[in-house]
Predict the structure.
Amino acid sequence: MSKKFLAVAASLALVAGLTACGGDSSASGGGADGGITMGFAQVGAESGWRTANTKSIQESAKEAGITLKFSDAQQKQENQIKAIRSYIQQKVDVIAFSPVVETGWDAVLLEAKRANVPVILTDRAVDSDDTSLYKTFLGSDFVEEGKKAGEWLVKDSQGKSEVNVVELQGTTGAAPAIDRQEGFAEAIKAAPQIKVIASQTGDFTRSGGKQVMEAFLKSNPKIDVVYAHNDDMGLGAIEAIEAAGKKPGVDIKLITVDAVRDGMQALADGKINFIVECNPLLGPQLMELAKKVVNGEQVPPRVVTEETTFTQEQAKAELPNRKY
Amino acid sequence: MTSARPLDRFRSSGLLWPLVAIVALLAANAIVRPSFLALRFQDGHLYGSLVDILKNGAPTMLIALGMCLVIATRGIDLSVGAVVAISGAVTCSYIAAAPDPTSARAALVGMGMALALCAVLGLWNGFLVAALGIQPIIATLVLMTAGRGIAMLITDGQIITVRNPVFRTVGAGFLVLPVSILIAIAVFVLVAVVTRRTALGLLIESVGINPEASRLAGLRARTIRWTVYVFAAICAGVAGLMISSNVSAADANNAGLWIEMDAILAVVIGGTSLAGGRYSLTGTLLGALIIQTLTTTVYSMGIAPEITLVFKAVVVIAVCLLQAPKVRAALGRRTRRRSAQPAPDAEPGAERSEQTPTGPIVEKVTQP
């Protein structure tokens, strides 16, 4: 008897736990009053970028009058699948999520499709042959980010006879690392004097960027430009360049991707020369898409996040507004 | 033992092959790029690839020293990576929240708090292992998993950047040599003196061989096991300070990630058996140096990131094979035939060391 009670209590607690995370969403009851209810399954809180992403979604849902049910999967796919199933059972109007990994989503997405709950992917894509399983994919175009970085360098290198670039790659095999490398390589083809003389992974971390840059500085006597796949590795590289007695941003130019607050600060301080934004604040765009999807309007299958680039002057103006 | 010639003694100490590995790696680097070994003065301190190896290897060295003693008691500590993250997180959070984030006081209090917390975490590990008798690999797995979560809670999932000159000194500062390597060497000398110039090292080994028998023989086996876990956690705490100080930021997600594996590898490459009962501090130090030299080699030789792990694995396998008694016996057959008499089996303690898969390690290998 008591065992049975415990089991019921435990499963109740589990369901509550899945949905309780979105505590700040105004509890207006799903769809009864004509408002939209969205279930959002976040990857986790693994970086400042991700935290900003979460905040943006929560805030813009409030602004758009959408009731948000939010869950944090702590980087585990099974948690995300559980959350999505519970959203289907709660009959939310739309489900949005950033898949932890690319594969293994067909079954649960099919359940959503059968229950007539539209799905929007954010930030990361899924690898599935059946594109009817989700309505649209909202996220950054990493190749485009690499291209923007390369294009700036091409413009900056005009009239120079030789420009030696070292590249700090992201985690080997990660989509942003592969795509940012590809886009950059494509863009610098336009200027034959630009050469990537060394390329290593710094694992998207500051200490990784610093260690790799320390080695680069010793093995390559002439480095003109550092291209880092994210701000953090660029910040590590700045430390290494300073320790070598050179001036980052002047003796060696830096180009990075992301535009998080610490990176923007370094850009404003003149230690980084150019940052391509990878925008985590996709909440407003997501809410707009969600409204369209729920109203049955057509949406494009791929929506690219609105992103910009920053020079040192722009960074000084933008810095006070940076939230993340 | 005393009658053996220095070379034989050195060979049987198990330090030969790790040393050969380091020299070979450095030589390979010097061939590819002759300036690899070059050193010069830059802003009043030494500057060069060798200095980088020492500076970046210091945290692994320190953690490996703590790990070495834990392994000597037939334990293992998987939580050191998480402790690294917590240590950096506590210090940077404190400094960032202090009224004057650039003051020496903020840095010292922050670091003190972090190390005190690390000692508590070590007490927790020791409590699970020594007092409750839980298998060390499981007991420390608890903190390995939970610890990173604690670090994330402290930093709120953000990377906390600080600009504090005193804190910066620990990981990125120089007194001719990097401060971090000076700290690591100081700890090494301290441990060597305390465990090898007193009976403590012998007691640790005896606990590793048989804790119950040691207790019955009158040793405080439980206290010794407890102490080594606290020591390992404090070492990890100091390493955490170095890692976060090196980049002036606390990254709860990535600081010290997988460093427990590097530390265990360093201990094993150095010739210490995972079965406990024997340990070599000098070997551990060399092991940590091999790992860092490998990493630096990958960066400066420009080995493609896709094959980096394979390259590392090949070197590690080579060193481990050279350490294995059977391989060494096969390699040493020729030399033994030549010198013919001093059979290593005649040495006291040889029976014990033969059980160890990574080869015999001689007592008192460390002579500071």
